[in-house]
Design brief:
alpha/beta, seven-stranded parallel β-sheet
Length: about 600
């Protein structure tokens, strides 16, 4: 019998919600995020309203201060939340606009419980992992699950929840216990548990790792309903039968997640293995009203958010389009970054945006990674340093376009400034994001305006420069770093109809994009830049903050203070990324692309906040 204490702290739950929990075992990087996103996309394709939650067991409050080398990029949400990169995958694949509450961390849960204890909410009781921490996890998941994130005002039908980490990690224990409790607080057919596992090939397909990870789950009271088995080749019937026998699961509920030409084929792979039928059997989804039916209670017109890939036919067509593009002529983009050693995860949304755009223009994306430190030879170069510089210059010159992403700190900054300078001088397509805009401004000040000591206040800690063309934003306090920036969706006014950015956004006079920065252009220098040929074609509503720069007499030289990569979607690439990649791939027809974007008109993804 449940004790009165535990029952008291179990929050009331919404009974009509369906949940799909996704966990992983054996090792990391099995594709939990891909599975979660693809299951969500499949449910969306079938007509159900979906939202997503990522649980990260680390103690950090959020991902904002985590190293890109260790954790990958920080994904910024409309509400300013700094989240795990998997939320970017959810937004792209499910066409959602999530909030900071859709990313749960151990730090957030414990902080909430401790704050309640300090207020006296627990009435003097001893606060423990069970029931108080687990109850807070349940309350948080249930609360977020009721919030629409698809642009409608209708509650979701299904919430897909990914549990980060690997089953067996001590950090995940409280979350697994909360999930176990959660299931028995819900009506039957309300929860489906999907577990991702690994099938190595060593003289055949081996099932022992899968057997052990399922037993680890069973030991904490959770029996998976579906196993997604990652393997280089298709999991054969005999392997599925062995897993079924040893793991207490029907053979048809063992899903093979084998290699595909591109990940967009995975949704159809799930459908071919009857994933939706299995989900329907477990959750009784057929008893819910599909999204396509009219709901008189909704005040938001359908379709929501932005025209996107919705049906399985749409996804299959796009997957095939990606295959065709990858066999086309390459478009080579020089990627001048600071965190290249962190792998693609450090810039995952940027790379996805470049890929979306390359597919749109029918070209194979080839990213040429260039460390920004290689572009700044030392004053007394060590052996090999000069060759690194020369090789970096040579590699950039061979590329069709030069891209400079965001970043923090002064390491490699002079290399980024050099990249902006060479793109300008070589008349090679250039696109800069956040810091990529700031280094373009610094280059222009030094090499066009004649301000040789121009720099950013961020890099001039000794206060030697008299020309801080980039300054610290005055309203940002310097005492705290976490969540202490200009964050989230902000309006940007595009006031010049003849500008490239105005046309790329379909003629929208006002757009919303996501920001993440502490430094901005020093408006005291505005007139000098404008008169010298660098123009500011996007500003905030006060006209005091510059968000977009262009050089009109350059074939394509564009930089933005915001982060457009966070809103790019498969089949609906970010406008400035699309313009840049088109300019790199087809430099003689940039005007045609701009006219085409202008004719299509603005997307609601950028005109609604």
């Amino acid at each position: 019998m449940t004790s009165p204490s535990i029952q008291h702290f179990r929050p009331k739950l919404a009974k009509e919600m369906k949940y799909v929990f996704v966990s992983g075992g054996v090792c990391s990087s099995l594709g939990k995020g891909v599975t979660t996103s693809s299951v969500g996309a499949l449910l969306r394709a079938k007509g159900y309203r979906v939202t997503a939650i990522k649980i990260d067991p680390y103690i950090n409050i959020d991902a904002g201060l985590m190293s890109p080398y260790e954790h990958g990029e920080v994904f910024v949400l409309d509400d300013g939340g700094e989240a795990d990169l998997d939320l970017g995958n959810y937004e792209r694949m499910m066409n959602l606009s999530l909030t900071r509450d859709n990313n749960i961390t151990t730090g957030k849960i414990y902080s909430a419980v401790i704050n309640k204890e300090r207020r006296g909410d627990y009435l003097g009781r001893t606060v423990q992992v069970v029931p108080h921490i687990t109850a807070e996890i349940i309350r948080w998941v249930d609360s977020v699950a009721q919030t629409a994130t698809d642009g409608t005002d209708l509650s979701p039908h299904v919430t897909v929840v990914e549990l980060g980490g690997t089953v067996g990690d001590i950090e995940s224990a409280a979350f697994l216990e909360a999930i176990r409790q959660f299931k028995f607080n819900l009506p039957p057919h309300s929860m489906c548990f999907v577990h991702c596992t690994y099938i190595p090939i060593m003289s055949g397909q081996k099932t022992k790792p899968t057997q052990h990870t399922v037993k680890a789950l069973q030991s904490v009271g959770i029996q998976p309903d579906i196993l997604v088995a990652r393997c280089e080749e298709e999991v054969n019937d005999s392997t599925k039968s062995k897993i079924s026998n040893q793991c207490n699961i029907h053979r048809e509920k063992v899903i093979s997640a084998h290699n595909v030409p591109n990940l967009f084929h995975f949704i159809q792979m799930l459908e071919d293995q009857k994933m939706f039928k299995i989900l329907n059997d477990v959750l009784k989804l057929n008893e819910l009203s599909p999204f396509g039916e009219d709901d008189p209670t909704s005040s938001v017109p359908k379709p929501a958010l932005v025209p996107c890939l919705k049906t399985l036919g749409d996804w299959n067509e796009y997957a095939n389009t990606v295959d065709v593009a990858r066999n086309a002529a390459p478009v080579k983009i020089a990627f001048v970054g600071k965190y290249n050693k962190g792998g693609e995860d450090a810039y995952v949304s940027v790379v996805k945006s470049l890929e979306h755009s390359a597919v749109e223009v029918g070209r194979k994306l080839e990213v040429v990674w260039i460390n920004s430190t290689d572009l700044q030879p030392a004053e007394t170069p060590e052996e090999g340093d000069e060759s690194l510089y020369e090789n970096a210059i040579k590699s950039m010159k061979e590329c069709h376009g030069i891209f400079v992403p965001g970043g923090f700190g002064d390491r490699g900054i002079e290399g980024k400034v050099k990249a902006a300078q060479l793109a300008r001088e070589w008349k090679k397509p250039y696109f800069g994001v956040c810091l990529g805009m700031q280094v373009a401004i610094i280059d222009y000040a030094r090499n066009v305006l004649g301000l040789s000591d121009a720099t950013s206040e961020e890099f001039d800690t000794s206060k030697e420069s008299e020309n801080h063309v980039i300054k610290y934003m005055p309203e940002i306090p310097k005492e705290q770093m976490g969540a202490n920036m200009r964050l989230g969706a902000r309006w940007v006014e595009l006031e010049r109809p003849d500008s490239k950015v105005f046309k790329l956004y379909g003629g929208a006079k006002k757009i919303t994009e996501r920001h993440r920065h502490r430094y901005e252009f020093n408006i005291d220098y505005y007139d000098r830049y404008e008169s010298a040929g660098m123009i500011f074609t996007g500003k905030d509503e006060s006209k005091e903050r510059m968000d977009v720069i262009e050089i009109p007499d350059h074939p394509f030289y564009l930089a933005v203070q915001y982060h457009p990569e966070f809103k790019s979607r498969p089949g609906a690439p970010s406008p400035p990324f699309l313009g840049f990649v088109h300019a790199a791939a087809n430099p003689t027809s940039v005007g045609d692309r701009l006219d085409s974007c202008l004719k299509e008109g603005p997307s609601v993804l950028y005109t609604q906040l």
